Amino acid sequence: MEKAGLIADVIEGVNQVAKGRRNLMTKGETEEGLASFFNGHELLLRVFKEDHASGDPELMVLAEFSYTSQELVESTASEPLARSSAEAAVSYFDAAMNTFPLVRDSASYKIVDRACSPHHSYRYAGCPKDKEGEKRLEHKILMRLMRLCG
Fold first, then answer.
1. 25 or 148: whose pLDDT is higher?
2. How far apart are alpha carbons 86 and 73 in whole angstroms?
3. Interatomic CA distance for residues 139 and 71, integer angstroms
């Protein structure tokens, strides 16, 4: 799956779910709301399954980032907890996406690795401690994707 198609499908799915939510609250539009709500979730599930099957961690993070960003756009002021949670998630995904070029370029990564002290207090599992957070984030993202994909 290409990145542009992935983002477009995620945005379309979230928009359908949001439309369904709005219609469910409108008298007389319940059936249309349910259809839109389920169609959006079906599209999102298909996108995340295809994305997971690709095995590309950058694409997986991009899909989650797109989903969370669009959820943030669709969230209302009446949902402050969901909104603050989405804002925090977007900042974490943004940070994770910024590390991919560094990890892909092994020469740059080796320089960063050498710059970090070898003392165990500065490292976690042999990696610089800043990588610990990235490993945990990647693990959480993969676990979430696996739960979504069944």
1. 25
2. 9
3. 22
The enclosing H or E element of 94 equals helix 80-104
- Please give the tally of structural domains in the chain: 1
As given in the structure block, the two tokens for residue 11 are 């945005």
Q: How many CA atoms lie within 13 A of 4 on its CB side?
A: 0
Show Cβ contacts of residue 79 under 8 Å, excluding neighbours closer than 6 positions. none
Contact in structure between 109 and 12 (CB atoms under 8 Å): no
Q: 12 pLDDT exceeds 70?
A: yes
Q: Residue 57: which domain range?
A: 3-148
Count of Cβ atoms closer than 10 Å to residue 66 Cβ: 21
Q: Which amino acid is at 145?
A: L
Angle between helices 80-104 and 129-148 (to 10 degrees): 120
Q: At what angle do helices 80-104 and 106-115 cross, to 10 degrees?
A: 100
- Tally of residues, the chain: 150
Give CA torsion, residues 17, 12, 5, 65, to 10 deg: -60
The string of pLDDT tens digits covering residues 60-96 is 888 888 888 888 887 776 778 878 888 888 888 887 7
CA atoms of 67 and 148, how far apart (whole Å): 13
